[in-house]
Amino acid sequence: MDIFEQVRKCRLCEGTLSMGANPIIQGTTQAKILIIGQAPGLKAHQSNKAFNDPSGDRLRAWLSVNHEQFYNPDLFAIVPMAFCYPGKGKSGDLPPPKICAPTWHKPVLKTLNQVSLTLLVGQYAQKCYLSHYSTVTEAVKAADFANQNPLPLPHPSPRNQIWLKKHSWFETCAVPQLQARVKAAIAH
Q1: Is pTM beyond 0.90 here?
Q2: How does 70-86 read in b/e, with b if 16+ C-beta sit within 10 Å?
Q3: CATH number of the domain that residue 99 is part of
Q4: Which domain of life is it from (predicted)?
């Protein structure tokens, strides 16, 4: 059984999840781009498909890829900070349980030898992998979108409209560079 299948069978925090365990992960050892995000949302939980919601629509637009490309596990590995839907909180989904990433990230990432671009989507991934920045804004503003790896991205959630309006440079300046990086990684 490969590591992706092992993660899909994980039940470590099943008792703490309001909707039960349903680990969602995508990838193969051939994946070229790694996306580390927050945790699956309700629609992803219900469909067993990461970013299968308006956040995913925006993320795919930022990356300039279609559904077929995005859900091709030989192109994109999707390894969230938590693999199961954490449940609903007062202002959105609950934070990812802290047991998933320490348990699974190291063995999963060790198998992704073909990855040439890693995208850290949102605050939880950035706090884990770019801990020297205190906010998403600070990490994204400081990023060199033409060369940096891993590359921080704001969360593509519709709830993030205010951030995107306040930082319009992200979509006008950073996204075209991001798209060029994704295109090059896929072609590699």
Answers
A1: yes
A2: bbbeebbbbbbbbbbbb
A3: 3.40.470.10
A4: Bacteria
